[in-house]
Protein 1
Amino acid sequence: GEDVEQSLFLSVREGDSSVINCTYTDSSSTYLYWYKQEPGAGLQLLTYIFSNMDMKQDQRLTVLLNKKDKHLSLRIADTQTGDSAIYFCAESMDSGAGSYQLTFGKGTKLSVIP
Amino acid sequence: NAGVTQTPKFQVLKTGQSMTLQCAQDMNHEYMSWYRQDPGMGLRLIHYSVGAGITDQGEVPNGYNVSRSTTEDFPLRLLSAAPSQTSVYFCASSPDETNTEAFFGQGTRLTVV
């Protein structure tokens, strides 16, 4: 079955770059996503990348996709204390029933040290 | 726009009780889903719907029922609550099947004692 793996914790100093890594097993993934969850809140979609892309940049966020190694990363430039949260990697693929089902990793807790 | 609204935010049930978790969205999204989030785990899909009148099972459907009589509402029913259903439940909606614009509710924290 599908599996999405992430490291559980990452700690960085304010102003440094953060890199959160994710590996997935299903080569038929169509979209790959990064979600952010702040304490007591729901998930917020940060960005996504289509599987035929290598890179996507959106302000401080850069997503890199290595399809050969099934590796996805999220780089946050100039990390701020407000970036402290849990970041979830997710993949989706066509279920064949008209819906793309999301499979989530366990989440990486990012702690930003002032 | 309110987005995706879940009620209640917190609930404590006794084993064997039944209840319905409510989810409503005002964005006219066709696709809605229910997930549960357990400590140290990612979200797992319980049930989903691709439109009014259509529902299907996700990864962990046992013990839960859903219905989709309107586009706006997608309630999740626990027929006979068990301690294993203690979790945080999230409802999500999306305008299309790709989930590239998915919105999540704030979650319902359920404890079954």
Note: The first strand of chain B starts at residue 4 and ends at 7.
Protein 2
Amino acid sequence: KAGVTQTPRYLIKTRGQQVTLSCSPISGHRSVSWYQQTPGQGLQFLFEYFSETQRNKGNFPGRFSGRQFSNSRSEMNVSTLELGDSALYLCASSSGQGTYEQYFGPGTRLTVT
Amino acid sequence: DAKTTQPPSMDCAEGRAANLPCNHSTISGNEYVYWYRQIHSQGPQYIIHGLKNNETNEMASLIITEDRKSSTLILPHATLRDTAVYYCIVSARIGGYQKVTFGIGTKLQVIP
């Protein structure tokens, strides 16, 4: 099976802009979770989508949003970018059932200048 | 979510067993123990999980104490490629979803 793919791998944006990141989960997986990783805060949970519905959310401002499509692919959007949004954004795929181990993609490295 | 405590760093000689401890004294009865690792600049990699029985797969073994308050991940023959940050997580599905909280993990350095 192909693994989790994320696009783009690297991105440079300017403060105030918005950005959309994409994640394609493992075939057959219906759950996609998003995480932000920074040196200071570590890995932080953003939100999880299952069957096109957000069913769990972390403590991030409303500028961070996401969606999931019928083919389980997911997008994450960050509006009005701030310098502090510079991070590695990771997507994790899971069946969404059973014991729920997650399989992570390589991440998108976002730099906000 | 139950919290976990791991040593911030450990060294292991190449070819020897690496034993990574994790304390989770407030674990609930329905929470599983998961281990992931993250090699520098890559996404975390799932290693193994368990509820109360010891588990083994091709990558590692997981030993959970009888009271479930601690666990140990064992890499039987560590190689240089096992150098990574190892995360111990406890989590359960509640209401159909699962929230995963990563701590700071243990930075394992395998030494030649």
Note: The interface with chain A takes residues 32, 34, 36, 41-46, 49, 87, 91, 93, 96-104 of chain B (CB under 8 Å).
